[in-house]
Each structure stands twice: as C-alpha cells, then as structure tokens.
Write a structure and sequence with these properties.
Elements: E1 4-11, H1 18-30, E2 32-33, E3 36-37, E4 40-45, H2 58-73, E5 79-81, H3 84-88, H4 94-104, E6 108-115, H5 128-134, E7 136-140, E8 156-159, H6 172-181, H7 188-195, H8 197-206
Helix pairs in contact: 2-8, 7-8
C-alpha cells in the first residue's frame, strides 16, 4: 500500500497572509511525486522561538491559520493546521519536527516546503547537513533565487514550477507594519486583500499587532 504524501509547511504565520495560503494551493495543485499529487498539506505554526521574536501567542496564530484555510478552501480536508509546536509551547527544529511526524504517522511520506531563498544557508540549520542528504523537500522558487547552483538543493527535492509570479509577494512583516503604523480601519480593503476577511476580522476582534 502506498504511503500518503504529506507536505509540511512551517512558519511563524504572524499573521498568515494570502501568500501563505497560495503556497498551500500551489503545492496541492502543481507539485507531483512520481505522478502523484499530495494527499494533504499541513501548516505548522511555530512555538516560541529564541532566534526570532514572535509576540503573538501560538494559539492565536494557529486560529488565524485555521480561519484562513477555512475561508480559502472551505471544508476541503486536505488542508490542515498541525498544533504540535503550539501545543508544546516551544519551537521544534525542522529536523526533530520531521522525525516526530515520521514516528507519529508511519503510514505517511513527508516533504518539507522550503523557499529557495533559504537554500544558501540551509546547511547551517540545526542538523542541516543530515537533512540535506536524508529528508525530502518541496522547493518553492522565490524571486531572485531561481537560478541557484544545483549543489545548493537537497538530495531529494521536488522543485515547484509555480504559475504565480511571486508566491511570497505579501509578507507577514509588511502586514504588521501597516497595522502598527497606520489606521487599520482606513486600510481595511487593502489588508483584507492581503490576508482575507476572516484573518482581518480576527485581528480586529483581538486587537493584534496594534
């Protein structure tokens, strides 16, 4: 019996934006492994991190991911949010996260979603050299990092030929800056375009990033 193909997309998602949800869609619709589409794609909001300040509680970031997925994909159960890091209230390095998933779900085959801009520094990650040789990845091209040397790509890589000009067009940092330094209500239409209505409404209701 073939194992289920699962794509793992980790990040702080502080907040999640339409670019993040578009990447989920790209993975499901465009990336194939030996002719097979992925069965599911999992968003994994990070827990607390020492190397990156994430001020929004994990539970709220997780809720925003769930709301965004619901708005964009409805009841499509192929799109999920995994709470393994949020529940443990700590960030889990990618190497140990993938090992945990493999142990918890032996019936699944996992691929980690990675932007091409991270490839030059990838081997410096915790256990990066090991992951480079042993783990499987989906590489999403990012503007300015499309033509990297082949030796920067992990041994087992599926490179997405994205139909979107720049799937990373809207960053969480950009959205936070608009909220922090502008009148959020006056930018309502613009922010809803960047995040979707559900995430925007949740931010307003919970007074996030103000």
């Amino acid at each position: 019996m073939e194992k289920k193909l699962i794509a793992v997309y980790g990040g702080s998602f502080n907040p999640p934006t339409m670019s993040h949800f578009e990447i989920l869609k790209i993975v499901m619709e465009e990336v194939k492994v030996e002719g097979r589409n992925f069965d599911e794609v999992w968003m994994v909001p990070c827990g607390d991190r020492r190397d990156k300040k994430v001020s929004t509680p994990g539970e709220k970031r997780q809720k925003m991911c769930e709301l965004g997925i619901k708005e964009m994909f409805g009841d499509d159960e192929r799109y999920k949010v995994q709470d393994i890091e949020v529940k443990n209230r700590r960030s889990i390095p990618t190497y140990y996260l993938m090992l945990a998933f493999e142990e918890m779900y032996p019936e699944c085959e996992f691929y980690f979603v990675l932007g091409s801009d991270l490839l030059p520094s990838f081997k410096r990650w915790d256990r990066g050299e090991v992951m480079f040789e042993e783990f499987k990845f989906i590489i999403i091209p990012r503007e300015g990092y499309e033509d990297l040397d082949s030796d920067l790509y992990p041994r087992y890589s599926e490179v997405c030929k994205s139909k979107v000009d720049d799937p990373f067009a809207t960053s969480s940092t950009e959205v936070r800056s608009i909220i922090q330094w502008s009148n959020i209500i006056s930018h309502k239409a613009h922010l809803k375009e960047k995040m979707g209505s559900a995430v925007y409404d949740y931010i307003i209701e919970n007074n996030l990033f103000a």
